[in-house]
């Protein structure tokens, strides 16, 4: 399976997938840390992928998503964005609505 297929498969493997630097328990950058905190505050179960442990994913995810930076949050297979967008959605209550919507199915 090529790397783009592997990324697509990962994105589709769970309702919420976060590609981040580090792990939810030990984020390796402030942006990843703030994104995890927003998801955890909502009690949103999510799958995380540590891009620091997978150089192929780190190199190719920006090409797959057309988004240059990390973290990258996907909900229901769609790229939501990075830290700033995630926090804006969190502040507005929209992220909570999206999380509830994807977990009610």
Automatic annotation (TrEMBL):
Q: Gene3D superfamilies, from UniProt?
A: Glutaredoxin (3.40.30.10)
Write out the transmembrane intervals. Answer: none
Q: Which residues form the signal peptide?
A: none
Extract the SUPFAM superfamilies matched here: Thioredoxin-like
The GO terms this record gives for MF are: 2 iron, 2 sulfur cluster binding; disulfide oxidoreductase activity; metal ion binding
Quote the record's binding site residues for glutathione: 21, 58, 70, 83-84
Task: List residues of the Glutaredoxin domain.
Answer: 16-80
Query: One Pfam family from the UniProt entry?
Result: Glutaredoxin
Q: Where does [2Fe-2S] cluster bind?
A: 29
Query: So which domain of life are we looking at?
Result: Bacteria
Nucleotidyltransferase: present as a keyword of the record? no
The family this protein is said to belong to? Belongs to the glutaredoxin family. Monothiol subfamily.
What is the protein's given name? Glutaredoxin
The scientific name of the source species is: Dokdonella immobilis
């Amino acid at each position: 399976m090529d790397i783009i297929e592997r990324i697509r498969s990962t994105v589709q493997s769970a309702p919420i997938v976060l590609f981040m630097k580090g792990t939810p328990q030990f984020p390796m950058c402030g942006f990843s840390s703030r994104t995890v905190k927003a998801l955890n505050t909502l009690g949103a179960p999510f799958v995380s992928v540590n891009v620091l442990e997978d150089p192929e994913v780190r190199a190719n995810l920006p090409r797959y998503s057309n988004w240059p930076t990390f973290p990258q949050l996907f909900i229901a297979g769609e790229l939501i964005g990075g830290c700033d967008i995630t926090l804006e959605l969190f502040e507005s209550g929209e992220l909570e609505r999206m999380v509830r919507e994807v977990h009610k199915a």
